[in-house]
Automatic annotation (TrEMBL):
GO terms for molecular function: dihydrolipoyl dehydrogenase (NADH) activity; flavin adenine dinucleotide binding. Pfam families: Pyr_redox_2 (PF07992), Pyr_redox_dim (PF02852). Keywords: FAD, Flavoprotein, NAD, Nucleotide-binding. Residues 361-467 form the Pyridine nucleotide-disulphide oxidoreductase dimerisation domain. This is Oxidoreductase. Residues 6-322 form the FAD/NAD(P)-binding domain. It comes from Conyzicola nivalis. Belongs to the class-I pyridine nucleotide-disulfide oxidoreductase family. InterPro entries: Class-I_Pyr_Nuc-Dis_Oxidored, FAD/NAD-bd_sf, FAD/NAD-binding_dom, FAD/NAD-linked_Rdtase_dimer_sf, Pyr_nuc-diS_OxRdtase, Pyr_nucl-diS_OxRdtase_dimer.
Length: 477
């Protein structure tokens, strides 16, 4: 007989869900994952991994082309077919057996099908063949269903069969032209990848590029996208879309038009909560799930019972895999602690609190140049009422960077809380900066003072000497 009672039920089987279940099982509980598509979720098959694989080959080629001695040896262009094959290997050709093996090995149960809450601590799973399994949780249910792409309300857009990010990351054939609606991370990364493939890319971004980053990110990434051959239509929105013989024609708010073989919509995400039975527990279907720092869903039903958690994209705290997995570790461990009556450490920076979600979320946009940032931007810090000092430095003037690439162009910004003399935020824009950002994350989480940072000596000649240059610009204590 199939087991139907578990200590923990996790609805969703993405990267975040896997980590919640793993922590719970390691803590001695039983756990089941419910997955309706591929175990491993968006990140493994349609988001982080395939998108980074599509980008990496072009970035590596241009890195070689930027170094005298290497550039003479690199005479060909990008091999698009080989790049797509490499992408396919990273998605295991959209086969999740490897992840299923991992789940089994970790001692986690798996039920395939669509999960829905049916009441407090009860969940039903509808398999593809219509079979229904009813599950009961002894201690907790975690919703980890992720997010769906958002389709803006543009006349004719839905009928024009636009690409979602999934189509862009899993494409088997690169179209001759691609119009991209949106100016966020997906839009910028896919514009970079597709422009590298020789596709004629037009980015239509009503609010400009990378609006959540420091302004210079948009400036440097925009210049470089244009160098790659992309056309930028900033400050305009599409008002109408129509598919015809030549592809899709978009009419823009400034009266212009753009015609492309395909149109990619990259305008943000919506919560996957429309059909998961939220109404059965007094919550609103289709809403993001608001949680406290232990990832417990806020709401009347839960307030009394403390059994429903939400991790990953669905709680809208930070739509990033690494941050979702960080929440998963806290949630899995706190579920164990509460189930076994152990001490709960939910104070700021406690084991069971996802404090970093508010203070220190790192993000890398794998454009060319890369944008790597963590903590607060200068605008966000000023808006939050901090008394700040902003320190900028040209990365190209760092010896390590000038060795990394001939004519290295990049910029760094450090935002300092003048009262406590600690770093609030750091942004790096430039080639290979993705690997620099973790030092900034540690400085912010550790609340290291700028005076102490002088003792963190970067090796010469590495790009990390940017820290020394930022400190010199800030001034010796
Ligand atoms: C193009 C793109 C690129 C990205 N690149 C990066 C990146 O480089 N780095 C980064 O950190 N983040 C990146 N992200 C964001 C990242 O993909 C998400 O933050 C991450 O996937 C969220 O993980 P999750 O487990 O919350 O949700 P998901 O990965 O979406 O997992 C949810 C799972 O739940 C399943 N599910 C949903 N509803 C049900 C149900 N009712 N019953 C059963 N199963 C259900 C789904 O099938 C899915 O497998 C990218 C996003 C996109 C769109
Ligand atoms: N490298 C990474 O870490 C990575 C890569 C891709 C995606 N992600 C994450 O996935 C999430 C989704 O990415 P995204 O780029 O879709 O969202 P986003 O929120 O980053 O960007 C959405 C963009 O769409 C625009 N927009 C919104 N509504 C619009 C409308 N009606 N018409 C025209 N433009 C509109 C916004 O101005 C913005 O430029 C983000 O939170 C992102 O952080 C991360």
């Amino acid at each position: 007989m199939t087991e139907t009672e578990f200590d923990l039920i996790v609805i969703g089987g993405g990267a975040v869900a896997e980590n919640v279940a793993d922590r719970a099982v390691q803590g001695g509980l039983t756990a089941v994952l419910i997955e309706s598509e591929l175990v491993g979720g968006e990140c493994s098959y349609w988001a982080c991994m395939p998108s980074k694989a599509l980008l990496r080959s072009g970035i590596a080629l241009r890195a070689a082309q930027n170094v005298g001695g290497a550039k003479e040896a690199v005479t060909g262009g990008l091999d698009v077919a080989a790049t797509l094959r490499r992408r396919d290997s990273f998605t295991s050709n959209w086969d999740d057996q490897g992840q299923v093996d991992w789940v089994e090995g970790a001692g986690i149960s798996l039920v395939r099908g669509h999960g829905r809450l049916t009441g407090v601590k009860t969940v039903s799973v509808e398999a593809a063949d219509g079979t229904v399994t009813n599950l009961t949780a002894r201690h907790a249910v975690v919703v980890s269903t992720g997010s769906d792409p958002l389709l803006p309300d543009v006349d004719g857009l839905a009928d024009a069969e636009p690409w979602t990010p999934r189509d862009a990351t899993s494409a088997k054939v690169i179209p001759d032209s691609l119009a991209i609606i949106g100016g966020g991370v997906v839009a910028v990364e896919m514009a970079t990848a597709y422009a590298s493939f020789g596709c004629a890319v037009t980015v239509i971004a009503r609010g400009g590029l990378l609006g959540k980053e420091e302004d210079f990110a948009a400036e440097l990434v925009g210049e470089s996208l244009e160098k790659l051959g992309a056309t930028l239509r900033l400050g305009v929105s599409p008002t109408k879309a129509q598919r015809g013989a030549d592809g899709v024609t978009l009419t823009l708010s400034d009266g212009g038009t753009v015609t492309a073989a395909e149109v990619l919509v990259a305008t943000g995400r919506a919560p996957r909560t429309g059909d998961i039975g939220l109404d059965t527990v007094g919550l609103e279907p289709g809403d993001w799930l608001d949680v406290d720092d232990t990832l417990l869903v806020r709401g009347e039903t839960n307030h009394h019972h403390g059994w429903l958690y939400a991790t990953g994209d669905v709680n809208h705290r930070a739509l990033l895999t690494h941050q979702g997995k960080y929440q998963a570790r806290a949630a899995g461990d706190v579920i164990v602690a509460r189930a076994l009556g152990r001490a709960v450490h939910d104070g700021e920076w406690g084991t069971h609190a996802a404090t970093a979600d508010h203070r220190s979320v790192p993000q890398v946009t794998f454009s060319d140049p890369e944008v790597a940032s963590v903590g607060l931007t200068s605008t966000a810090a000023a808006d939050a009422g901090y008394e700040i000092r902003v320190v900028d430095y040209e990365l190209g003037n760092v010896a390590g960077a000038s060795l990394q690439a001939d004519g290295y162009v990049g910029r760094a910004r450090m935002v300092v809380d003048e009262k406590r003399r600690v770093v609030l935020g750091v942004t790096f824009v430039g080639q290979d900066v993705s690997e620099l950002i973790h030092a900034a994350t540690i400085a912010i989480v550790g609340e290291v003072t700028v005076d102490r940072l002088w003792h963190a000596v970067p090796a010469y000649p590495t790009m990390n000497e940017i820290w020394l240059r930022l400190l010199e610009t800030y001034g010796r204590p």
